[in-house]
Amino acid sequence: MTTTISVINQKGGVGKTTTVINLAARFAELGKRVLAFDLDPQGNLSTVLSGGRYEFNMTVADLFDKPKRVDIQATIIQGEANKEPIPNLYLVPADIRLSKVIEQSLTQIHRERILMRHLDKLDGQFDIILLDCPPNLSLTSTNAMMAADMFLIPVDGGSFSLNGLADLLDALEEVKETENVPYFAFRNERAKQNKLINEFLDEQLKGLRDRVGTNDKSGVLNSCIRREESIGQASVTSMPLRYYRPSALATMDYKELATEVLNKINELQR
Ligand SMILES: Nc1ncnc2c1ncn2[C@@H]1O[C@H](COP(=O)(O)OP(=O)(O)O)[C@@H](O)[C@H]1O
Ligand SMILES: [Mg+2]
């Protein structure tokens, strides 16, 4: 059974792409067949997981441009790190054409279901599909919402806003046509030294726990990812952190996060 997880937050720079890179690598290490899907025209995920490439023959732009004629299989490439294939890890890259193509898709019927229909054709080929969303709530994000079974929402101290989160949750509930959307917020870039921000965020996230109310499928994860320079350095050198610095403390954080997410997947499937 495939679980599709959308890593989503309309704010930029909160760690969506970094989360997809490192969760994908960890899930693959655990033997899960993983497809990481880049939905941001900036293509950062594509560059990192391909081991540094900037150009690709086929991308997600082609999937949106000619949904009937482009086969998703033709867009899938194997993940790479250090010029070696990463076992179990596959990627659908994005490129800058995506923004244009998405604008043109606005007139298509079933335009929010384009991605879902492509993913349906994968038919159990992957255990986990991770969608790296762009920093907005545009049609690309709506497609990700339609296609996903679960949502992971990274929040960070610097730009956190409960209003933004409320907008996102409203959009999720509307697209999924239910108030029981399984979404999980977690803290990224937790800075030990910044007590004020930490306390503020913990308080706000407690508010989110209360908002969840009767939605027992959702909540705030216990795992959080600390702020660590090696995380950014790894991405700049086009590697998941566990390849760049296996001994980094944040490598442990991603392991914990991955385990917690796998538990949530199991609960969902029950
Ligand atoms: N826990 C972290 N510690 C240090 N740097 C981080 C952390 N998470 C993300 N970053 C850095 O912050 C920047 C934005 O992260 P990114 O994943 O691209 O965010 P988004 O995809 O939400 O726009 C990147 O340069 C990334 O390397
Ligand atoms: Mg991103």
TrEMBL record:
Record domain AAA: where: 3-180
Stored Pfam families: AAA_31
Name this protein carries in UniProt: Chromosome partitioning protein ParA
